[in-house]
Amino acid sequence: MRINKDYWLLNTPIAHRGLWGGDLIENSLPAYQNAVNNGYAIEIDLYSTTDGEIVCFHDATLVRMTGADGFIYDKSLAELKALSLSNSNEKIPTLKELLALVDGKVPLLIEFKDQPDNSYIETAVNILKNYKGEFAVQGFNPLYLNKIKKLAPEFIRGILGTNVPPEERGAITKFVVKNLTLNFLIKPDFISYIHTGLPIKNKKKLPLLAWTVTSKEDAEKALKYANNIIFENFIPE
Q: What is the secondary structure of 28-57 as a DSSP string?
């Protein structure tokens, strides 16, 4: 096992999309800075643009956070930078902008999101190989994680799971995401599972994160089974 009891992933609460709320917008540079200022690790999500830039954004579609139509991976960086996050002056940040801001001050938990062209994984991995701060990677897609394992076996990697997969997913994908049946292929260092689905079978006793915890009460419940939480909407004690 490559994660010991003192590793940050088990001990530093992880701010989901940055430490946001009020005027601070999720997955924005000010939200990331707020997490840094308060000493929390940061969870982020990655997509790629049509011109090969890696950006930090959670949704596949743009409408919720920008009001624009379409998928984020169908836009160029210039098109995305022309949009505003939640009617503010904030823009969708790139991975490079995030890394420059954080600069190793707090650890990062980096989710690779599914998109039609997964060649962006190699681009993101190459950027991260040159980053000096602490980080770990995760994703729902075992094939993505297997690719990361081959490109960067040194990266600490985790598999995301949920007992309520999206309805649009096929039956096989739902089964895999719920039961983590391809762990033998990717050999994850940790599991990150939806907190409402805990406890889970964890035969290898891998380190376990609970996502996304939104209250102190739910944190107390989750930490009966999990080593750490990914949180939003409250401040962990």
A: SHHHHHHHHHHT-EEEEEEEE-TTS-EEE-
